[in-house]
Amino acid sequence: MANATSIDENGVIKFTYNLNRNTEIFDSGDFVKDWYDYTKRKMQLDATEFQFVEHSSVSEFVNNNPYKMMYLTVGQNREWVLINSTSNYRWFDVRYYVEEDTNPTWEELKERCDNEN
Predict the structure, then answer these.
(1) Which residues make Cβ contacts (< 8 Å) with residue 37, sequence separation at least 6?
(2) What is the Cα–Cα distance from 73 to 79, expressed in whole angstroms?
(3) CA 20 to 30 Å from 106, out of 56, 88, 92, 113?
(4) Number of neighbours of residue 62 by Cβ within 10 angstroms
C-alpha cells in the first residue's frame, strides 16, 4: 500500500505517506480534533506525497459513531465556510468531521481544535 489513512475502533488515526516511509498517529482522544490535525498535516505535505487512499475503516468508524462530514469551502463573499451538504461540495473542498448534533462555523472549529491540548 502506498500512502494511506486508517482509523481503528477507538478513533485513532494512522497516517502513512511518502511511500510508507513515514507514519503519524493522531490519538488525542478527541476524534474531531485528531481529524482536524491530520487534515492540517496532510495539507503540509509535498504534492508528490499527496495521493492518498483512505482505508474502509474511515467510513466504518464514522458510520458507527455520532459524527458527520462538513466541508470547508469558499463562500459567496470569498470567506471560508463549513457546509453540511454534499450538494454544494466541490472536489477541492476539504472534509472535516464534527459531532453529529453540531454545526460549527469554520472559526469555531479552528478555535476549538487549535486551542485544545
Answers:
(1) 26, 28, 113
(2) 8
(3) 56
(4) 18
Is residue 20 predicted with pLDDT exceeding 80? no
Q: What distance in Å separates the CA atoms of residue 28 and residue 46, rounded to the nearest whole number?
A: 25
Other CB atoms within a 10 A radius of the CB of residue 9 amount to 10
| Residues 25-67: tens digit of each pLDDT | 999 999 999 999 999 988 888 666 656 678 889 989 999 999 9
Cell numbers found for residue 13: 488515526
**DSSP 8-state symbol, 29:** S
Residues 85-107 have pLDDT tens digits of 666 667 678 899 999 999 999 99
CB 97 within 8 A of CB 62: yes
State residue 69 phi and psi, 5-degree precision.
Answer: -85, 145
Please state at what angle helix 106-115 crosses helix 31-44, rounded to 10 degrees: 100
The domain ranges of the chain are 3-115
Classify 19 in phi/psi space as left (phi over 0), alpha (psi -120 to 50) or beta: left
